[in-house]
Amino acid sequence: MRTLDASRVVDGQCRRPKSALERGTQGLFPFFKSWTVPLAVGAAYYIAAEVGGALAFPSAPVSVFWAPNAILMGALLLAPREQWWMYLAAIVPFHLFAQMPDTPFAQVVTQYIANVGLAALGALAILTISPTPHRFDRVRSAFTLVLFGGLIAPAITSILMATAFVLFGISHEMRLTVVARTITNTFAVVTLVPLIVHCVGRLRSGQRPISVKRAAEGVTLSLTILAVCVLLFFLPTDSPERTSLLLYAPLPLLGWATVRFGVSGACAASLTAGAISMLAMVNGFGPLSGSDPVENALSLVAFHVVMSIIFLSSAALLDEWRLAGRALTTSRARFRSIFENNIIPTAIWRDDLRISDANEAFLRLTGFSGADIQDGKLRFDDMANWNGKAVTPQSDSNDLLERFDNTELELELRDGRRVPVILGHCRFPADDGGVIYALDLSAFRRAESRRQRAESLHAAVLVSLHDQIAVLDSRGVVIEINDSWRHAVDAAPAARFDRVLAGENYLQCCARAAELGDRTAADHMAALRSVLSGAEDRRQLDCREPGEGEAAWFEVSFERLRRAEGGAVLTRTDVSARRRAEADARNQRLQLTHLSRAAVLGQLSGAFAHELKQPLTSILGNAEAALSMLQKGTASPEELAEILRDIVQDDERAAQVIQRLRALLGKGETQHAPVELNALVSESLELIHSEFVTRNVVAKIQLDPELPTVLADRVQMQQVVLNLLMNACEAMVATPIACRQVIIGTRFLAIAEAAEITVQDIGTGIPPGDTERIFQPFVTTKAHGLGLGLAICRSVAEAHHGVLWAENAPEGGAIFHIKIPIAGGLP
Predict the structure, then answer these.
(1) What are the Cα distances from residue 318, in Å, to 127, 259, 370, 489, 760?
(2) Tens digits of residue pLDDT in 629-649
(3) Distance CA 761, CA 811 (A)
(4) What is d(CA 359, CA 136) in angstroms, rounded to the nearest whole number?
(5) What is the pLDDT of residue 824?
(6) With helix as H, strand as E and coil as C, how does 79-109 read?
């Protein structure tokens, strides 16, 4: 089965594979594209060669105007050097086509080598020497073009070409060939190369188009030069007006082009005037009336070479002068902008520190106005005050400025106030004057004062703190400690791992102690590393330190130091007194809880007596029946066994009641164990069953079968449930007997991960606003109550990380909720 290549699918349609011809065409496209410009240069070379051939000297194998070499030189200047071979190769066919078949092959080859050598040698020299080889509107660049591209390169290649012509027998006029070819190529290079390079550079840079006004001026000037040159140079040979002075007639127009259009205008105007005059000379016209036409032609070309060099140099000088003027104007504008908008108070002084100008910041600082400065009466040395004394120049401004430089002193303002400043200055080169900078130190002084106060406060706080505090850097090195830490270190045993002072590495001390088996040091090291690495912002540890008497407890906290460099703050707080107070409070709470249980049992004494009376009465009856049967002799072993089993069951029932009483009355530490709240609720209902019967209360049970166990103290939780059930019974004293009902239930709160017990009565409910007040100690609604039951119940719930709250039921009565976390429980 043929598969379809994904690369052949475009927009959901199958694309047929390219043929070999198409692939070859695609590969040739970049090749032809890279040769486009060299071939275009070759075409221009051919056209210029044809024009030059038409303007050849009658007795020498050279032309009065040979532009191909200048065109090739301009192209090489614009092209990357690694592509020069392409241009030199591209002109070969065009050169052969322009010269053959009428020209001997030796002459064609010699001229090609000479032309290529001239263009390459001149371009290489210009690119190497000129700082701006693509701009000839600088004097140095124009001079490099004229000297190397227009004189040296043509002269060297002309000498070599003329020598070759003599050797090959092509021409014996070596002097004429050298002179004619040199000056004609000089003229072409000086006028054409800058024109080509500047025009192409303008097109490449994407400069804005020439304005209509300037374009109209250029067209008018070109037509004027063209008309004047045609009228002057195409005079008949026998005309009486024919004189060499006519060559100077177009010069004002050439000067106009030079001044208005720079290098490009000068070259274009010189090229136009020279080309028309040379064309006229070759055709027998022109202002020169000498008998030798070759000498006339050479004189004409030489004249135009000199004029073109003069106008090119003048244009470059004018353009550079304009550029320098614009640069100076821009520099002054920038300096003024920087001076005016500088936020540092700055003033310019002249003539013995007399202020001649000042920026807005200086005026704002001193309170003076621009009019005060314009009057020329404000002197800087009058404003300066050094060490409380006015500064008076002893010798000259130079010595005074040296005393001012980078010096803090006071500057007297217009209103007489003085502000601290630091001064700096610089003198203008080759000028009488300079700049003075006055940096206002008032804000820095205030900031320094605030910093010193903050440091003093920081030090005072550290000294005043009773806690032991050490500040550590990101490596665990102690960088600062307070007096409490220092005193603790002095009093601590030498074997203590945390006996560390400033400059020592706390982390390394912990690591060494941990390697020796110190568990506390290992805990400190882990906590400090966690805080220093950014894994935690704070870590707290409780440490017990044995002593001569009672052990001491310390709370050690590692807090992230909030700064870019990182670090930690280590705080050791002695919590021994707090631990003792917590232990006392816990013992008192246990005592109070025990008393509360005893009070509840006192309320349930009748119920417990009833619970015990039933099994004891049954035991007595069964025992008497057994004795009677034995006395009569009618007792069978089966009947006696049945009676004894009943006695055992009643005895176990009484023992369970007594065991529950002992558990509720027992004193001891809190027992942490898994507790099934459903079983606890059922057992509590059995204990209070007789009380419910006596009070005519019906218990409605709603237990969640999916309720998980909780980690709690069973006795304390049962005390809470019994207390809430007793309160529910007492709340329904005024409720009709038929309506007395207690609803007790459990449920699992999956989202909160907690178990909840609810006790609801049908009593009078809780007065508005008292749903929280009833949990306060000694607050009760009973006539003979102490007001401690609900307070103790809430403390028990909170000790189990739970909550106890109350609310009124919509249908009447109150609902008490106790919520205990499944995974929390007692710690």
Answers:
(1) 23, 7, 39, 85, 107
(2) 777 777 677 777 777 776 776
(3) 10
(4) 41
(5) 47
(6) CCHHHHHHHHHHHHHHHHHHHCCCCCHHHHH
Q: How high is the pLDDT of residue 746?
A: 93
- CB atoms under 10 Å from CB of 523, counted, come to 17
Answer yes or no: are the C-beta atoms of 826 and 759 closer than 8 Å: no
Q: Check whether 9 has a pLDDT greater than 50.
A: no
Please tell me the predicted confidence (pLDDT) of residue 30.
60
pLDDT for res 190: 92
**Closest residue by Cα to residue 481 from 493, 465, 492:** 465
Token digits of residue 186:
């000089």
**What percentage of the chain's residues is helix, strand, coil (to nearest 5)?**
60, 15, 25
Tokens of 97: 């086509």
pLDDT of 757 strictly over 90: yes
* Residue 776: strand, helix, or coil: coil
Supply the DSSP string of 191-224, one letter for each residue: HHHHHHHHHHHHHHHTPPPPPHHHHHHHHHHHHH
Sheet containing 568-574: give its strands across: 478-481, 468-472, 568-574, 552-560, 538-545
d(CA 374, CA 522): 77
Q: Who contacts 155 (Cβ-Cβ below 8 Å, separation ≥6)?
A: 178, 182
Q: How far apart are CA 786 and CA 22, in angstroms?
A: 107
Q: Which of 60-64, 344-348, 632-636 is predicted least confidently?
A: 60-64
462-478 per-position pLDDT tens digit = 777 788 888 999 898 99
384-386/389-390 β-pairing? antiparallel
User: Does residue 805 have a pLDDT over 60?
Assistant: yes
- Is the pLDDT assigned to residue 538 strictly greater than 70? yes
Query: Which single residue is written with the structure tokens 């005072």?
Result: 460
**65 and 77 in contact (C-beta within 8 Å)?**
no
Angstrom distance (rounded) from CA 122 to CA 100: 27
DSSP structural state of residue 246: G
Res 579 pLDDT > 80: no
Q: Note if the pTM is more than 0.85.
A: no
Residue 584 CA to residue 416 CA, distance in Å, equals: 71
pLDDT in tens, 357-377: 888 888 888 888 888 888 777
CA 264 – CA 191 distance, rounded (Å): 9
Could you tell me which residues are beta bridge partners of residue 14? 9
Q: Are 136 and 312 in contact (CB under 8 A)?
A: yes
Tokens found for residue 596: 């509360």
pLDDT for 487 equals 84
Q: 136 Cβ partners below 8 Å, 6+ apart?
A: 142, 145, 193, 194, 197, 198, 263, 312, 316
Q: What is the pLDDT of residue 24?
A: 44
Query: Under a CB-based contact definition with an 8 Å cutoff, are residues 502 and 479 in contact?
Result: yes
How far apart (Å, rounded) are the C-alpha atoms in residues 242 and 135? 39
CB 711 within 8 A of CB 669: no
**DSSP for residue 777:** T
Query: How far apart, in whole angstroms, are the C-alpha atoms of residue 123 and residue 125?
Result: 5
CA distance 149 to 186: 8
